[in-house]
Amino acid sequence: MATSKESGGNKSSTSSGNAQKSGSGSSQGPAKRGFAAMDQHQQREIASKGGQAAHQKGTAHEFDSEEARRAGQKGGEAVSRNREHMADIGRKGGESRQSAARNAAAAAAAAGGDGPGAAAKGSRQGGKEKDRDKTE
């Protein structure tokens, strides 16, 4: 004699369970639970507290200086592997410094400062030679 499983006697409960999952859920999307089911006000209230609960329980992770240093080093290594990206960064840095010097020289020329110190103002180490000449 066949058991209820073999004869399909339990099919009605299985099919109704599947119908509940796929039939009603597919038209509205997956059922929202937990944080997603809360209204926006409740979500904001919880989110504004941040990690306070974890800190109060003592389970929050806190970086010590060595761990933070290692994390920063890893990030720097990952970025510096891309040589093209690093070259682009260096190029932009040089451009900004050069354009600042050009703008300063143009402003000095426009103001009528064509004296011997006008060119030195735009360079970073222009004043060193002047000071050395005075001491000798």
Automatic annotation (TrEMBL):
Transmembrane segments: none
Low complexity: bias regions: 1-18, 100-122
Extent of the signal sequence: none
Biased composition range(s): Polar residues: 19-29
Region described as Disordered: spans on this chain: 1-136
Biased composition (Basic and acidic residues): 59-70, 80-95, 126-136
Protein name per the record: Stress-induced protein
Organism: Massilia violaceinigra
